[in-house]
Structures are given as structure tokens and as C-alpha cells.
């Protein structure tokens, strides 16, 4: 299974982020799954790629030309796909994925997982959309989705397939149940 993970090119200031992302990457590699991610060698992106590769997994990076021109790409990947821009990158990462995980990240992570959430809710994508709510990172988004239901702007049925998890074990449970 190709697991597309969205996450930042920064490490953040919480040491738990690095540890959890390394654990996630190690599990992806050891479980025989493959990682699809943004292609960078920096920050949490670099950590997940390295931990997946070190665990024997395959890693596909999808990076827009302007990041490659800035020499931000990871050179040791199984495959690096270069896109013309961020829009093409998002489309390619969705096309390659069987499951989608948003690790804590910045505005780019939010933009990318929002598109996946929309496609899942519209049933244009039959795949789990998992928000890794490490230390409550996505509590605000979870509350917002609940508020959408409360105000009649969404429904539990529309949000089926969107999961909030606290740890790797919950990710494993979801993926084992669905695949």
C-alpha cells in the first residue's frame, strides 16, 4: 500500500514530533508499505524519508521544480517525481496514494490534507484520511468539523472516512481494518 504522508519541511519545536515521525516512517518501511511524500530532505519530511528508507521501505518523493531548483530534494529516494508546480504535486500525491495521513505541519500540510478531506467527503476518493492528532495538534480542526455538523453545513455521513488519531497504533488499526 502507498501511504501518502503530508508534513512539514521544518522540525518544529516539540521533540515528540521528530520521535513520532521516525516511528511512523520505520513502521511504513518495516510493514512492507511504501511512503509517498513531498520529496524534501529538510525537517520532518527528511526524517520520515530517512526512517522509511532505513527500515527497508520504498519512498517516492513528489517535489515541484522550484524546490528542486533550490536543491531541497532528498537525493536518496527510491523515486523522485518532479512536477511543474504545487497543484500538479497535490494531484500526483493523491493519485499515488491508497491512504493519507496528515502529520502535524504548516499551512502547506493543511492545504494538502484539506483537498483530500474534500475528495473523501464527496466520495471522489475511496481512501482513509487520517489526521495524526499528536499532543492535540489537530484539536481545533476536529472541533471545526464538529461545528460544521452542528450548524447543518456537513453531516457525519459526509465526514465518514476522516479519522483523528492520537498515535501510531490507531493508524495501524484503521489501516488493518480497511485493507
Summary keywords:
seven-stranded parallel beta sheet, 18% strand, 7 strands, 7 helices, 179 residues, alpha/beta, 46% helix, single chain
Describe the fold and architecture.
The protein is α/β, with parallel strands linked by helices and 179 residues long. It contains 7 helices and 7 strands; from the N terminus they run βαβαβαβαβαβαβα. A 7-stranded parallel β-sheet has the order 4-3-2-1-5-6-7, with helices on both faces. Helix 1 (15-30) packs parallel to helix 2. The longest helix is centred in the first third of the chain and has 16 residues, at 15-30. The chain is globular and about 45 Å long. The termini are close together. The mean pLDDT is 95.
Give a quick summary of the entry.
This protein is of the alpha/beta class and 179 residues long.
Give the helices and strands, then pairings.
Blueprint: E1 2-6, H1 15-30, E2 34-37, H2 43-54, E3 58-64, H3 65-69, E4 79-83, H4 86-96, E5 99-102, H5 107-121, E6 129-132, H6 139-150, E7 162-165, H7 168-178
Parallel strand pairs: 1-2, 1-5, 2-3, 3-4, 5-6, 6-7
Helix pairs in contact: 1-2
